[in-house]
Amino acid sequence: MTKTIFITGGSTGIGKATAKLFAANGWTVIATMRRPEVEKELNQLPNVTLMPLDVTDREQIKETTQKALALGDIDVVFNNAGYALMGALEAISDEQLVRQMETNFLGVVRVTQAFIPYFREKKSGLFITTGSLAGLVGFPVSSMYDASKWALEGWSESLSFELNEFGIGIKTIEPGLVATEIGTGSVIASHPAYEPLLTKFLAATTPDKTVSTAEQIAEVVYEAATDGKNILRYVCGEDAKTMYAQRLAVGDEAFRAGIKQLLAGANLEF
């Protein structure tokens, strides 16, 4: 029997790569995005349906959920829509910080909430969320982005106990740096007082050979959807695996000291 996945943020990066991979593996895919009318690739695939969805629009979440469920059974919901807001907190406007949390955190919460009654009634279903290494480790000049991802961590872990009562799973994908459009789609709030710190951080995190591709992360999403395991977190990408292992091995304060060394231009050694 053909399975179906519902994807948010399906127009670029991990979302698009995941839609392609699942479609190639015989799944029915409902790929949502803010402007499906401009999509030129996914709309060519026979088992992919495009739907409009802005995850900050509560009414549209309800409408699109109902329309998706009217098409047939849904087995997996992949909450992927999001973007990065970078810069010092002092430089960020209230509108910017609200939009970051509305998109990255509350968008995930509201889409999940819309599907829970359906999954609960059929006593099965799986939610997968695009988290980040930035939800496990705090980085400089990214406090609101990190906050949105850390919020997802606590929310997912707590929610897992509720959902497991009804045979519903919840999993989080934790990539490090990914070579996707999120880099060019990032919002950077500038402030002259923090420009040296921002410059150092961006230089220290310049993509290199350890950066994952969107396709590699999509493979992890597929693994999470099909492995049948009750696992909450999937840390993926060599950079994320290495850095998170270091964090766990040395402890919070030694790790923070290491980040300071990195920003000072020293070799990052623990």
Automatic annotation (TrEMBL):
InterPro entries: KR_dom, NAD(P)-bd_dom_sf, SDR_fam, SDR_oxidoreductase. The keyword Oxidoreductase applies. Residues 3-176 form the Ketoreductase domain. The keyword Zinc-finger does not apply. Gene3D superfamilies: NAD(P)-binding Rossmann-like Domain. Keywords: Oxidoreductase. One of its GO terms (molecular function) is oxidoreductase activity. CDD domains: 17beta-HSD-like_SDR_c (cd05374). Belongs to the short-chain dehydrogenases/reductases (SDR) family. This is Short-chain dehydrogenase/reductase.
